[in-house]
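User: Sequence in, structure out. Go.
Assistant: Echoing your sequence, followed by the structure tokens.
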Amino acid sequence: MWRVLFFLGVIFGTFGGWAAEPLLPAQPPLFSGDLYRLVNDEGEGYCTDGANHYVMFRTHLLKIAADAAFASGGITLLASNMNTVAQLTGCNHCGGIKYHDGLIYCAAENYQAVGQYAQQSVALYDATDCHFVASHPISAGRNEASGLAIIPQAGKHGLIVVTSYDIASAPEARELGLFDLQSFQFLGYLVMNHPLPYMQDVCYNPGDDRLYVAASGPNIIAVTLDGTVREPVHVFDDPKGTYEGLDIWRQTNVIIEVNSPAAMPGGAVLRSISLAGQTNRNTSETMRRRKVKVKITPPL
């Protein structure tokens, strides 16, 4: 990500002393090619609709077929948007993305430096051809917007959960912003019991009712819907890049976009960690019918 971490010592300071959480096993690379060959831009977000992969760069959105060739580095490009900020007033950065009901939801903003950000918004793109649909401001939440998750069964109309990378914007880096999925109204925060600085993105797994957060550089951390932070469930083992976007793939894996600076080998790639044993608690039928409770702390 273009907002570079100046140190990784925060990893050990942040997670020291927690109760052990079993590490989820890594899988072979989902994609062995280099997404930089398509666009000269830095990887920021990833999501899936269960049939295709969507990869967001700072100003580019790609829709890629999840076909047999993909695992060996082949790319079947189904659609693209090569200037995702063109219709976003004042924005220069697209971050984490998620698929919901035919649309790609994206955390967008104008980001200049630590503590210097504005125009936080959720931008919507059509999942069929990636064209821009609409943008909704979320600046009512004081935090910077780096990524997002969607919990359709929570709240009155569903919830959008927004992460903040910029620790200057979130008191002690303990807050996840919560917005109504229908109106985009700011509702408050999911306040975590432990700080998670440098949050890049978040995804919701309905199979175990957990949020999985990419934070503090190379870590995936599980967070329950009452704000309880677990020890990292996976720690990145490749120093060439950091975890960026992530999403749940067919209820079996967490897919993570790993971003390396363009000058380094590997570029933007996709990795996978198994959710074996994590997703069996809630059946598909249960997930469709039930309401999900998220602990919301109203804004002051």
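User: And one key feature?
Assistant: Residues 25-289 form a domain with the Tachylectin-2; Chain A fold (CATH 2.115.10.20).
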